[in-house]
Amino acid sequence: MGALWGPTPAGLGRQRVLGSHRWRTQLGPGRGLCYLRAMLDEALMAFVKAFMEEQIPFNKHLGIRLLELREGEATLEIPYRDALIGDPFRPALHGGVISALLDTCGGAAVFSTFTDVGDRTSTVDLRVDYLRPGRQETVRAHGRVLRIGNRVAVVHLDAFHPGAEDAPIATGTGVYNVRRAQDG
Question: Are 75 and 149 members of one domain?
């Protein structure tokens, strides 16, 4: 399994990621709740990954894969296949594929901040700036929550090819509705 959530060194509200190869030594003896949290987070990641990849028909159709989910951040990818080409003369990935990946990534980043299984999110607005053509390669997206309030979340989004994170093919901003379970 990938990364697990863990407490910050200073015990602040934010969390840092613990690599799966280090979590036992970092948690150490006498930290039963942290150990339990790590196990629960691993199970949660497996559940969210299976849900996003297999239970959402459009995600399954596109082949979206969840690579990493941390508090306030998400990384997803779509493996390349010919059906994703939008301009056969160039050829370049279809802009709709890129925007769908960015939108899904933003929703996953917002979801990662929720503390109640009944909390929900939906897209209010998505702005995408296409910077260069998407090549015939796997495309990844990374989303980072900039602000989350009681009703609205704002997420910064980047789409890029693996190994070329410094040369994004698109950037964007997603605005998402936040519906808390306690609000009914």
Answer: yes
Q: CA-to-CA distance for 165 and 80, rounded, in angstroms? A: 17
Give whichever of 7-11, 48-52, 180-184 has the largest mean pLDDT.
48-52
Q: Could you tell me if 137 and 77 lie in one domain?
A: yes
Whether 113 and 175 share a structural domain:
yes
Domain check: are 166 and 98 in the same one? yes
CA 159 to CA 100: how far, in whole Å?
11
Are residue 71 and residue 145 in the same domain, yes or no? yes
pLDDT in tens, 135-168: 999 999 999 999 999 999 999 999 999 999 999 9
Distance CA 168, CA 131 (A): 7
Cα 112 to Cα 45: distance, rounded to the nearest angstrom: 10
Give the tens place of pLDDT for each residue, 102-141.
999 999 999 989 888 788 999 999 999 999 999 999 999 9
Tally Cβ neighbours within 10 Å of residue 92: 19
CATH code: domain of residue 153: 3.10.129.10
Alpha-helical runs (H) found in the chain? 23-27, 32-50, 57-62, 95-111
Higher pLDDT, 164 or 37: 164
Residues of the domain holding 143: 63-183
